Amino acid sequence: MAEHNNIRLLAAVMFADIVGYTRFMQEDEGKAKSLRDHQRKVLENYILEHNGRIMQYYGDGTLSMFGSAIEAVNAAKKIQQVLGQEEPKVPLRIGIHLGDVVYDDEGIYGDAVNIAARIQGLGIPGSVLMSEKIFDEIKNHPGLRVEAFGKHELKNVFQPIGIFALAHKGLEVPSQSYIENLTGTFENSVAVLPFMNMSSDPENEYFSDGITEEIINALVKHKGMSVASRTSVFAYKDQSKDIRKIGEELNVATVLEGSVRKFGNRVRVTAQLINTSDGFHKWSENFDRELKDIFEVQDEIARKISDELKNSFNLSSSKKVYEASTDNVVAYNHYLKGRFYWNKRTPDAVFKAIEYYELAISECDTYTKAYSALANCYSFLAAIGFVTGNEALKKAEAYATKALELDNNSSESYAALGIVNLLFKWDFPEAEACFRKAITLDPDNIDARMGLGYHAMIVGNNEKMVRYFKEAVSLDPLSLPAKQELAKAYNIMGNDKKALAIYNEIFDLDKLYIPAYAGLTAVYINMKDYERAEETIRKAITISGKDMDSIPLLGYIEALKGNKEKAYRILERMKQVEQENHNLNLVIGQALIYAALGDKERTLQSIEQAVDERFGAVLFLHTIPTFDPLKNDPDYVRIFQRLCPEHRIASEMVQ
């Protein structure tokens, strides 16, 4: 990771958050914003009065820093008393922790921030919770009433944290049982490999993939386990690899593998737990159940693994592990089919995924995961030009907001909403706030790290762009999308050597990963090696069986080589397909080819069409050197000023 100008210091970190803000926005946006504005005004007054400083806004909350623990606690007490008594009353919860932070021009980072956020998440409206470190600093100060809740183990925190609450008049204090129901413990390592589909119908693969994902999700929630991510383990699908090697690559102590056989209304799940140190089986068992009991099967498997690991890692399996976001088996089955198609990441498959997610919601209208999944589907389709930005904005925002209304602590939903704000609403500050909140709720959220990388790419901060994509890869070294974006970032920076090395890593993992071929083509174009560029993109066409997804790059290569006649022939074909299918990706492709041909008028027409239809890909055109000659053109700048003043081209013009 690159070095940055930053300061390391010991500080009291205060994280504040409005409970139910997303629901308020759904019910009455004006009222919600008035609550937020009132909250900010009160916080700004009392944080400043107590010698603190607000470092970051998160839309519905704030992250602040104090040089003194007692000042932080007194500020929090006063803030809650005012917000709980004055109109409009604001349902705020506050968490405070004392620890080491890194302070730079973006804000503050470090474990102290994560711990403060986790402590805040244990609170209720009107509460002020603090860590043992804060309590140690204030316990000898007279007049402070504090209630102790004992030590608790928090997600992504490797030591138990003592939790305390201010118990003054006007403040709310959660119950011991409330906090106990929310807290977790130390996490240790297991990888759940994709379960094999042993059913006679290959279409039932969606079910075996879904079982794998749901067991992963179940184990992540369990006290005492660190579970390899879905993207990491699915890289091993259909591969025959030594378990010891997998353990080494994923850095896990155990691996769970198994199979699913579905027949009629019954299902047999076979699972076996294997030590990665020696490849020996620790445990294996079959589960024969009726399909309606699939939730219990998942819970039983997770419990069994917990029991086997308990002696090694001092785990407890006393509470229910699996927490389904629906108890409707029909809805769940539709959701699994949706996940199966979503993971293919092709336009046809994602449209199919939408059908199944909508069926899931029709069966269970409180299915949080299905709403978040729908938001991601529409964002994806709009990003590749198969749905207009205006259509995607309405649907993706509505689904992401609904997901947050159902679960205001969903890191995934905040990341999904961040993409909507970034690519379709072009509200860059709000997008950044969503990504940062997602990371605060779950520091391992790769999508949010990548969202920050896209944000940095758009506003032209290349150093941060590379940093965020490197962080995403470090969180999940086998994630092909994360590696792909890091390679793109190096390509933008002009570091062809590093970009090529990453693409080699991607193809070592999956030679059929189509997006990487387009990225590698861009690297060869950057190197002016047009022969290898054309060879690479033609390979993608051969693998995918579809030339229209890749043909814009062929036209671009011909234009760069000076073969104008071939380039214009490709353009005519693209226009015909675009008019028939309204594929906005082809509009961007046209702009790219026209720019390479030096046809300024048609370049600007294509870009303006993409802007009119809010096609998010237009935000990234400034990263392509072919458009550099237009950067001082008033019409080109005017188009980007329509996007957002924070966009690099628009901001440079202002300067």
Fill in the keyword field for this structure.
single chain, 655 residues, globular, 28 helices, Serine Threonine Protein Phosphatase 5, Tetratricopeptide repeat, Rossmann fold, Alpha-Beta Plaits, alpha/beta, eight-stranded mixed β-sheet
Account of the protein in words:
The chain has 655 residues and is of the alpha/beta class. The chain folds into 3 domains: 7-182, Alpha-Beta Plaits (2-Layer Sandwich); 188-321, Rossmann fold, CATH 3.40.50.10610; 374-617, Tetratricopeptide repeat domain (Serine Threonine Protein Phosphatase 5, Tetratricopeptide repeat, Alpha Horseshoe). Helix content is 56%, strand content 15%. It has 28 helices and 14 strands. The longest helix has 21 residues, at 29-49. The two termini are 30 Å apart. Residues 311-323 have low confidence and may be disordered.
